[in-house]
Write a structure and sequence with these properties.
Structural class: mainly alpha
Helix content: over 70%
CATH class: Mainly Alpha
CATH architecture: Up-down Bundle
Order of helices and strands: HHHHH
Shape: elongated
Number of helices: 5
Largest sheet: none
Distance between the termini: 40 Å
Number of strands: 0
CATH superfamily: Ferritin, core subunit, four-helix bundle
CATH topology: Ferritin
Amino acid sequence: MISNTINEILNEQINKEFYSGYLYLSMSAHLKELGLNGFASWTRLQAKEEVEHGLKIFDYLIDCNSFVTLKQIRTPEFEFNGISSIFNHIYEHEKCITRSIMEIAKKAEEECDRTTLNFIDWFIAEQIEEEEAVKNIIKRLDMFGDDKVALYLMDQELARRGKE
């Protein structure tokens, strides 16, 4: 069985992952309202991924004969000020999640909890990929500026995510 400290921090991470799903769904709805279906699809798939991450931790706790404590998920508060603003917010949020994952790794290391350390390595690699994907979207949005044709093409490209 894992320690109470590790149990607590993993339960907090479940909540953060589910909150991330809510955040991405909120953004997806806004982008859909703007008619940016590709961007909306990308954020909706991201929401699904975040919930899957939470469930992966949920299952890990159960597999370790530990306990799951689900807490209330707060409503995402976000001012939508354009696509660049949304993706900059996503990037900052993902960096926050990365720090949280690294804190879990640090605690597991301090407690010589090799099982949790091994488990959390997958999340570390996943966070590197997620931050990189969002950074690339931001770079392109910054480069294209207000070019509506480029935005349209990018929207079409993002709509193909998950359909490859």
